[in-house]
Amino acid sequence: MELPLTQHIVPGRKPLSLKEYEKVGGYQSVRKILKAMTPVEVQTLVKDSNLKGRGGAGFNTGLKWSFVPMGPEAATPKYLVANADEMEPGTFKDRLLLEGNPHQLIEGMIVAAYAIQATISYVFLRWAYKLAAQEITQAIQEAQEAGYLGENILGSGFSLEMHLHTGVGRYMCGEETALLNALEGKRANPRAKPPFPQVSGLYGKPTIVNNVETLCNLPHIVNNGAEWFKGLSQSPDSGTKLFGVSGRVKKPGCWELPIGTTIREILEEYAGGMQDGYLFKGLLPGGASTDFLVEEHLDLPMDYGSIQSAGSRMGTGTMIILDDQTCPVGFVHNLQHFFAQESCGFCTPCREGLPWVEKILLAIDRGEGKPEHLLTLDFHTKYLGPGNTFCALAPGAMEPLQSALKYFREDFERHIHEHHCPWSKVWQPSI
Amino acid sequence: MATIYIDNKPYDVTAGKNLLEACLTLGLDVPYFCYHPAMGSIGACRQCAVKVYRDENDTKGKLFMSCMEQVRDGMRVSVADMEAKEFRAHVIGWLMTNHPHDCAVCDEGGSCHLQDMTVMTGHNYRQYSFEKRTYRNQYLGPFLNHEMNRCIQCYRCVRYYKDYAGGKDLDVFAAHNHLYFGRHEDGVLESEFSGNLAEVCPTGVFTDKTLKQHYTRKWDLTTAPSICHHCSLGCNTIAGERYGTLRNITNRYNGEVNGYFLCDRGRFGYEHVNSLSRIRKPLVRSQLPEATDKYLALKAAASAVKAGRVIGIGSPRASLESNYVLRTLVGEDNFHHGVSDMDHDLTDLALRILREGAARTPSLREVEMADAVFILGEDLTNTAPMLALAVRQAVRQKPLLEQVSEANIPVWQDAAVRELVQTEKGPLFSATFTETKLDELATQTYFASPEAIARLGYAVAHNICLDCPPVEGLKKEEKKLAGQIADALLAAKNPLIISGTHCGNERVLKAAANIADALCARERAAGIVLTVPECNSMGLAMLGGHKLESGLEAVLNGYADTVIILENDLYRRAGEATVTNFFKACKQVIVLDHLHNRTTETAGILLPAGPFSESDGTLINNEGRAQRFYQVHPTAEDIQESWRWLSELGTIVAHDEISQWHGYDDILRAIVIELPAFRGIEAVAPTSEFRIAGQKIPRASHRFSGRTSILANVNVSEPKPPEDPDSPLSYTMEGYRGQPPSSMIPFFWAPGWNSNQATNKYQQEVGGHLKGGDPGVRLIEPSGTGEFSTAVPQNFLPLEDHLFMLPLYHTFGSEELSIYSPPIMERAPEPYVALNAADAMRLKLEDGQTLHFTIAGQNYDLPVKTSPHIPSGTAGLPIGLPPVPFAELPAWAILNRNLKWKKQPQTTF
């Protein structure tokens, strides 16, 4: 099995230095595109490879690039931003790439920047990834000294500067337009689209924001071609993907696997199955902002289309497992607490709706729920949908809630009727 | 135009607008919060959701925020859709989770957009049963209250304050449902336009602190359309009264003039009307104490007029009608302008430039559309604040016209527009002798003496058109700057030149005129705005009259012995000794005014005039726009409009013309007949006989409460409502309920719209002109008959032991009446003299130390404030700021070097 993204990552070992990375074929893609490919050819190649954004939305990367104005008339400077603000609960795939092989990211960023003719690039890094910050800083310096970054890269006439920016820890910054606002030093509120960042992004200039994993795929696509990339996968979606599992499994972790590997295979073969004494109850397939899947979905292949048809999203591909000894209401409450806290406060439904939901879930969890609370939760799941709120944060927050209400409604009702949490061994006093 | 289908009915709407604007323009009730016509859309509140369908076969549709959707031809929309309605009700439900429901004790109650929208969406019952979040409120200065618990986080306040008005000390802090809108710490809001927050805020977070001192619900106010009397721009206001005191000033939308906003001087300066210094009884000083009767006073005045040789001194803060009646009473030859001779000459010059020049003077709305601006010698924020606010919008024009339209972003999509534009600004050049708040927006600033500013102006004009005289001896960088300004003005679609009388130099005005005319000669659609000293300075200049100096001389020479002074404190117009000598020489001094001042103290006969809220009249603004203001409430018999006092006086002395007049309409008619310059003024507002369906227009809303009980302790029978003989407005709630003509809107109200957002219903198009046209008639159009001025001045030369004292203006402090308003007084600076930093060092003076100097025999001891910009050899003296004595500036000040410098700052005289 070919594992291009993680082939040079050995857990516990320092990442490859520039020299070592070059020895195993690093930066070949940069040499190749600068020498033999036009920016539009790179865009077409990536479009043909059907690489989909790995940040969660799953939009064709080459297509996303194609909306950037090209040619001498286009506004300058253009920007490329690597979204390394991995804040999705239960998600730790980009961290592996950042800490394991920072040069791979830099190489991918040079390819992407060349494709859209960006001259300034940023790595927007989650504040808590201290080790990654160190590694990237060092890698950028090495790449600069070796002439892969800076003015006139490898004598090609193409220039690219790269900066590391560490965020201050807002989930909102994972949303690309909020990330851009934060990068400009403004509040991390999202922006209305249109205009899309491709037209008016960072400082009002054409900008592409790509996820770390997406960018890391680029050198391999350039080196091996679109067909090779498609061939990596067992599904209509191309390539490999980092899948992760957390929860009460025997071996929680993160693995690079072909897209289309079934949930059951990931869960049982790689994560080692449930811990002894715990039964599987449900899972969030791609981070906290995706709908629950249950037993009946375990044989689904992890690809964008299959998961979507089951009513959820592949998201970041990192699963959170709910077991039978964890209260689903408490589980969802914990998620809603996170989302309510991370709401930027810009639009009404998210700012006011999520804390309300959180309070209701807490009340239910404490046995103080009322039957009408479920109705209130229902209208939130209905009206905090995409388009009704300003960005995708609240709709994302509603996904685990609406599916929990669907699959685990009895558990919610038991809380309300029995006036206490059935999972709680200790009676809790009222608030 | 585009045709859209709303609930299956076709409507023609303006293409390019957003769907919310289109719906509101059509008169449909779509609730909203964060959208504001002057500030566009950001899509934050999600209140204006409607259903939009892909095509006629789409039955499901999808919710969209109407403020963020551009209208498309053939678009299918439903406002009444059940799901959309339910969502909108839920938005209110969400907002209410943390709103304190304290309407009963909230100043906004009854004129609250949040209340209106809540009712409109049908959200009735609270479902939220948990704790609400609470905040600590801030002290924001004397103008505004802060009550954050009521906040619905619509972002309007920061968008207005920071983005629109350029303020720096209000922002949004924290996140999620703990957003906080306020200052970084307690303190006075710095912006001169902060009061608009009270109107921009859709609920009771920011409310008028002056109103709170004498609080009344909007529905219990008696209101009348008024015109701001505190500068020359003539912003439209609504003045509200209850129980004989003026309670507040709010904005009266005029699409051509002030739009949605007012400056803080205009909004909070009204309390001179309620001042303890008001003159409430007539007085004949020789017959004190009993002669405080109206008819005795009139009789005394009449015999003085009959017996004496009378001159009249008019006033730029009195109405055109009052000045005209005085002029008629004393005769054209004996009518003098009650302004300093310099103001007289400069205002005359400004009028001549507007009349004879080639360039048109734009309205404030047109100023906002200018895409290149050159300011000569005016500190606009302090001399004509709303013009500064308009210039702030004008610098956005060039990027809006170029970048934004190129990127195909609709101008109303505010956040996206600002993101794209970033800090890009259109050309603004500012040449002043002191730092101004607009400097931060300027492409280039030029700080120099008025002479040097004029020279730069002449050079710019010469660069534009070679027919203008060249300027010799310019420095290299000045030549370069002149070229740069000329290029920017020539490259613009709507170049604008702004100058005015406030720097006290006629050459600056002439240079400004040259530039505007030069641009016209090069066939550019150039505009010229000239500010003038006071609210009716332009009207007075158009009326004509002699200088004050000649009036004073007439008495001193014995040509006259009696003077009638109209609403004027001569101690603010001429030197102390001169005025005192003048009064000594007068046999009889008759003064009409509404506040006690040093002039009224000398009056032998004092007649209490009604201030703006107790008078009807016409003002002519700097643009030459005649606008009517109306009396707000009936006054005690002893207080009446100056023109009524003077008419009665004229009738008693059997003046040929005046005794023929039987009221306001007759005076207006006489003005038009006698003075062709004022033709058109009769069309400013309907005559007093105007009725709609046989009814008058009520000043009080139909929601007015407690009328019958007001005097119930005296008599349970309801008294007859007072009559207003001068206008078609009634003083009570009786009258026509529909919309009156635009010139006489006493309040904005529509069913379901109790807040000022009801303005929507009075506009042809949301944010556009009022139905029936914006009020006011422009009396001046340029003839293009003037010639280029060739009076290029010599450069300024400093004098040993002298400082050339220049006038410095303050939004809060320089204007005569507003300073009687306690909150304005609180914001006024302490007296000081501004000194060039290098000069201060040469004079061995530090900030706060006292400078002793003499201007025209008047001694001044003032603490020094150093400035890096005020030119060397000059200094700045605050104008009009009590208690700094009057000086006609600019003038040479002699330094009293033999006095020892004092260490401590001294602020008293």
UniProtKB/TrEMBL annotation, chain A:
This is NADH-quinone oxidoreductase subunit F. Composed of 13 different subunits. Subunits NuoCD, E, F, and G constitute the peripheral sector of the complex. It comes from Pontibacter diazotrophicus. Gene3D superfamilies: 3.10.20.600, 6.10.250.1450, NADH-ubiquinone oxidoreductase 51kDa subunit (3.40.50.11540), NADH-ubiquinone oxidoreductase 51kDa subunit, iron-sulphur binding domain (1.20.1440.230). Pfam families: Complex1_51K, NADH_4Fe-4S, SLBB. The keyword Repressor does not apply. NDH-1 shuttles electrons from NADH, via FMN and iron-sulfur (Fe-S) centers, to quinones in the respiratory chain. Belongs to the complex I 51 kDa subunit family. Residues 329-374 form the NADH-ubiquinone oxidoreductase 51kDa subunit iron-sulphur binding domain. Keywords: 4Fe-4S, Flavoprotein, FMN, Iron, Iron-sulfur, Metal-binding, NAD, Oxidoreductase, Quinone, Translocase. SUPFAM superfamilies: Nqo1 FMN-binding domain-like, Nqo1 middle domain-like, Nqo1C-terminal domain-like. The gene is nuoF. It catalyses: a quinone + NADH + 5 H(+)(in) = a quinol + NAD(+) + 4 H(+)(out). Its cofactor is FMN; [4Fe-4S] cluster.
UniProtKB/TrEMBL annotation, chain B:
The keyword tRNA processing does not apply. One of its GO terms (molecular function) is metal ion binding. InterPro entries: 2Fe-2S_ferredoxin-like_sf, 2Fe-2S_ferredoxin-type, Asp_de-COase-like_dom_sf, Mopterin_OxRdtase, Mopterin_OxRdtase_4Fe-4S_dom, NADH_UbQ_OxRdtase_75kDa_su_CS, NADH_UbQ_OxRdtase_ferredoxin, NADH_UbQ_OxRdtase_Gsu. SUPFAM superfamilies: 2Fe-2S ferredoxin-like (SSF54292), 4Fe-4S ferredoxins (SSF54862), ADC-like (SSF50692), Formate dehydrogenase/DMSO reductase, domains 1-3 (SSF53706). CDD domains: fer2, MopB_CT_NDH-1_NuoG2-N7, MopB_NDH-1_NuoG2-N7. It comes from the Bacteria. It catalyses: a quinone + NADH + 5 H(+)(in) = a quinol + NAD(+) + 4 H(+)(out). Its cofactor is [4Fe-4S] cluster; [2Fe-2S] cluster. GO terms for cellular component: membrane. The keyword Nucleotidyltransferase does not apply. Keywords: 2Fe-2S, 4Fe-4S, Iron, Iron-sulfur, Metal-binding, NAD, Oxidoreductase, Quinone, Translocase, Ubiquinone. PROSITE patterns: 2FE2S_FER_2, 4FE4S_HC3, 4FE4S_MOW_BIS_MGD, COMPLEX1_75K_1, COMPLEX1_75K_3. Belongs to the complex I 75 kDa subunit family. Composed of 13 different subunits. Subunits NuoCD, E, F, and G constitute the peripheral sector of the complex. PANTHER family: NADH-QUINONE OXIDOREDUCTASE SUBUNIT G, RESPIRATORY NITRATE REDUCTASE. This is NADH-quinone oxidoreductase subunit G. It comes from Pontibacter diazotrophicus.
